[in-house]
Amino acid sequence: MMLYAQIVLALLLVMTFIAAVNVLTLPRIRKTWKPQTMPFVSVLIPARNEVNTIGTCLSSLAAQAYPHFEIIVLDDRSEDGTWEELQKWQSRFPQLRVLRGESLPAGWVGKCFACHQLAQSARGELLLFTDADTRHLPTSIANAVAALERSNADLLSLLPLLELRSMWEKVVMPMLHFVTFTTLPFPLVHHTRKPQLAMANGQFMLFRRSAYNAIGGHKAVKDALVEDVWLARLIKKHGFRLRVMDGAEVVTTRMYRSLREIWDGFSKNLFPGFRYSLAAITLVMLFNVVTSIGPFVLAVGGMFDWPAIDSAPVDSWMALMLVQVGLLIATRSMLSLRFSLGFLPILLHPVAMAIVVGIAANSVRWALFAGGLRWKGRIYPLSRQAT
């Protein structure tokens, strides 16, 4: 048991180190940045069943201080009145165009096909794909263009500030940052050519149109449910420059509003994120149980002299457990401070990770045993997904 505890401690030390490096090195986009040039920007929004969010997004984009841009929203066959809501907003904003989406062709994921249609209609030198659940400060386009210039990037992706209101949002959503920032070294994302070390956030992706066309656009990832990551990998694969920045100063998002929405939203992504490898996702689930749930459970077991722990020296065992728990709390606190995620939910870290593991298992269940992954009224059978 002591050897097991020492191995887990070593893993947690590595995770804490990666998180610290990421927090210290991830560049922040600043709302004071101003672009040197003013290329025409097409802001492209795929919308399916977004009647409750699209208005806030559009009003924030219409207030942009940037002088040369258009907004195009594609209603992807919504079933909740999104189209009618868009008609109201179109009459208010002259820079807004609203499109009706075509029927979804075989082999396409809905969002990818919507983005493909948007790109075909866009006139911009730069293409900004953003989601209907985002809210943009008045300088966000100008700041993003300036960041693209400063970094000489071909794809700039921003991580928005997460708006967390309900209890479950505050408990579960910070795990998105925890899992990402403890496992993916962002300096390698920026400074290596390896496509495997790439990531992007589909809520804000600013492409140079020349690079977007060169990699084949969304058509190249037409059957991918995690299209943002695969697009980022294609950018690096084709020799283009990728940059990811902390965009909390200029864009915010409230992704989900309930545990059910969180459960369904991430269930559609997790198994595809591992290229439908059952071995890979199982290994990661076990890793997360061992490193995020185990330390708390075994620390309690040490306090109550569980038989399985009796063979280990109690003082040494408890010291290792407390260090492990301390590292998890320290890492979560560091991320919460940097990304404004709140501190009280940190104490529920093992509960949050248990939910994440459950979501991963549900993602596998959907894909293998329930007819396919699903999102917003559509089902995507495993046979149609890229592997």
What's the SSE blueprint?
Blueprint: H1 2-25, E1 41-47, H2 54-62, E2 69-75, H3 82-90, E3 96-100, H4 110-121, E4 126-130, E5 134-136, H5 140-151, E6 155-159, E7 161-162, H6 167-172, H7 174-183, H8 186-191, E8 204-208, H9 209-214, H10 227-237, E9 242-246, E10 251-253, H11 259-273, H12 278-303, H13 314-339, H14 349-369, E11 373-375, E12 378-380
Parallel strand pairs: 1-2, 1-4, 2-3, 6-9, 7-10
Antiparallel strand pairs: 4-8, 5-10, 6-8, 11-12
- Helices, by number, come to 14
Q: Beta-strand level of the residues, as a percent range?
A: 5-15%
**What is the mean predicted local confidence, pLDDT?**
94
Provide the structure class. alpha/beta
Principal-axis shape: globular
| Main β-sheet description | 7 strands, mixed
- Taking all Cα atoms into account, the compactness measure Rg is 22 Å
Head-to-tail CA distance between termini:
38 Å
Q: How are helices and strands ordered from N to C?
A: HEHEHEHEEHEEHHHEHHEEHHHHEE
Describe what this molecule looks like in 3D.
This protein has helices spanning 2-25, 54-62, 82-90, 110-121, 140-151, 167-172, 174-183, 186-191, 209-214, 227-237, 259-273, 278-303, 314-339, 349-369; strands spanning 41-47, 69-75, 96-100, 126-130, 134-136, 155-159, 161-162, 204-208, 242-246, 251-253, 373-375, 378-380. It is α/β, with parallel strands linked by helices and 387 residues long. The strands form three sheets. A seven-stranded mixed sheet has the order 3-2-1-4-8-6-9, sandwiched between helices. Strands 5-10-7 form a three-stranded mixed sheet. A two-stranded antiparallel ribbon has the order 11-12. A hairpin with a 2-residue loop joins strand 11 (373-375) and strand 12. Helix 1 packs across helix 7 (174-183) and helix 12 runs antiparallel to helix 14. The longest helix has 26 residues, at 278-303. The chain is globular, with a radius of gyration of 22 Å. The mean pLDDT is 94.
